[in-house]
Design goal:
Elements: E1 5-6, E2 11-12, E3 21-22, E4 26-29, E5 32-35, H1 38-51, H2 58-70
Parallel strand pairs: 1-3, 2-4
Antiparallel strand pairs: 4-5
Length: about 90
């Protein structure tokens, strides 16, 4: 792997190399990437902002939701992230 393109709101962990493309709102290790549910990502964003002494605003929530919706084609509907050839 000479490089990986990583979308927004992605959580990578472990020591395995991720695929060459990791779609927005996904998490996992190596080839086992799964979609990161919108509700969970909003909760995490709010918690992080709170830890930094700030507030996760409605506008930020709407931006997250819009990005999630606009990038849904990069995530399969069966609870998995699709193979690279499905990405546009």
């Amino acid at each position: 792997n000479t490089g990986t393109t990583v979308g927004v709101n992605v959580h990578l962990y472990g020591s395995l190399l991720p695929p060459a493309f990791v779609p927005d709102f996904s998490w996992g290790e190596g080839d086992t990437m799964e979609p990161y549910l919108l509700e969970k990502s909003l909760e995490t964003a709010a918690r992080i902002k709170e830890q930094k002494g700030s507030t996760f605003t409605r506008i930020e929530s709407r931006i997250h939701t819009a990005v999630f919706d606009q990038t849904s084609r990069y995530r399969k509907g069966d609870g998995t992230c699709g193979p690279e050839e499905t990405f546009v």
